[in-house]
Design brief:
This protein is of the alpha/beta class and about 325 residues long. About 35% of the residues lie in helices and about 15% in strands. It has helices at about 5-10, 25-30, 50-60, 70-80, 110-115, 160-175, 185-200, 215-225, 235-240, 255-260, 290-295, 295-314, and strands spanning about 20, 35-40, 65, 85-90, 100, 145-150, 175-180, 205-210, 225-230, 245-250, 265-270.
Length: about 325
């Protein structure tokens, strides 16, 4: 979701040198860009602020520094670098660290929250779109469906594991090729799904790529899909950027803020809009998880079938 902001800066300053600081996953999105990438491992340190202070001094002064995060440590890093212009949102006792502390933008999509920071530079993207560099894999004869059953933020965002098993089993029985995706933290959960499927159906056309791809390899694999089934997750936004048809399952998170953005492909967001959602909690605070349980496997399968039939008619 940060790519529209990055490319707006790149287009405005085509000869600039860019340094990106972030998590391994977020930096992976830009593996194919000619930029310096610095992994932020400050959460592993005993003193996070001291780690970021040293990192800021090592990076040195930039003409422009911007943080898309709203926490104190990210603004501290910008201040420690001594950069001339430091842009970010107010709040969390960090405004004094920024030269351009902007008022937070609420109840708008995350992409637009990011691009709004550019207004401090008099840059106003009119039609921001997610962008990725992809080299799609060669497709075979079978329809390829991707599945992202995880969600790094917490279990509240995850559709029921038994439901994923039922849907994938049906897709395999119907002759589709299914690809399972996820990071290292999803290896065990997706292994359980794979083992359950082996007891139900032939898994000849099931490919479990969990923890086996770099971000660039993940992008290339998703780019070759005919449809993607996912929770609200990072891979969902990759599919959106690549205009892959989507079925996205939402419950605890706000689809107004983190839904697939500006995709050119068919997309269906399944959301029961319960009175308790979006709670934005890592775990269901009411312990019933009804926002996910009420979205049934049959509803998902019917939605997948409708999208694939519509795509086949075009």
């Amino acid at each position: 979701m940060a790519t529209p902001t990055f490319y707006a800066l790149k287009n405005t300053y085509p000869h600039a040198h860019f340094t990106l600081v972030g998590s391994k996953a977020s930096l992976g999105i830009f593996e194919r860009e000619n930029v310096q990438r610095i992994e932020d491992e400050s959460k592993k340190s005993k003193n996070r602020l001291y780690y970021l202070y040293k990192l800021g001094k090592k990076l040195g002064e930039f003409d422009l520094a911007m943080t898309l995060q709203n926490n104190f440590p990210s603004a501290w890093l910008l201040w420690a670098s001594g950069s001339k212009i430091r842009i970010g949102y107010k709040g969390n006792a960090r405004s004094f660290l920024l030269t351009h502390p902007l008022a937070p933008q609420k109840h708008i999509h995350q992409v637009l929250q990011y691009t709004h920071l550019l207004s401090a530079l008099e840059i106003f993207p009119t039609h921001p779109q997610l962008q990725l560099i992809a080299h799609p894999q060669k497709k075979g004869k079978l329809t390829r469906i991707g599945v992202s059953a995880g969600a790094k933020y917490g279990s509240a965002k995850r559709w029921c594991q038994s439901y994923f098993i039922e849907v994938i089993a049906t897709l395999l029985q119907e002759g589709y090729e299914v690809f399972m995706y996820g990071g290292n933290e999803e290896i065990e959960a997706n292994r359980q799904i794979q083992e359950a499927l082996r007891a139900l159906v032939s898994t000849q056309h099931l490919h479990n790529l969990t923890g086996k791809t770099s971000i660039s390899e993940l992008i290339d694999s998703i780019a070759s899909l005919d449809l993607f089934l996912t929770n609200d997750s990072g891979p969902m936004h990759i599919a959106s950027a690549l205009s892959v048809p989507l079925v996205a399952i939402f419950g605890s998170t706000d689809c107004k803020e983190t839904s697939p953005f500006n995709t050119q492909a068919p997309q269906v967001i399944l959301n029961k809009h319960l009175s308790c959602s979006p709670c934005k909690k890592r775990e269901c605070p009411l312990k019933h998880h009804q926002c996910m349980k009420l979205i049934t496997p049959d509803e998902v399968l019917n939605t997948i079938d409708e999208i694939l039939q519509a795509e086949a008619r075009e």
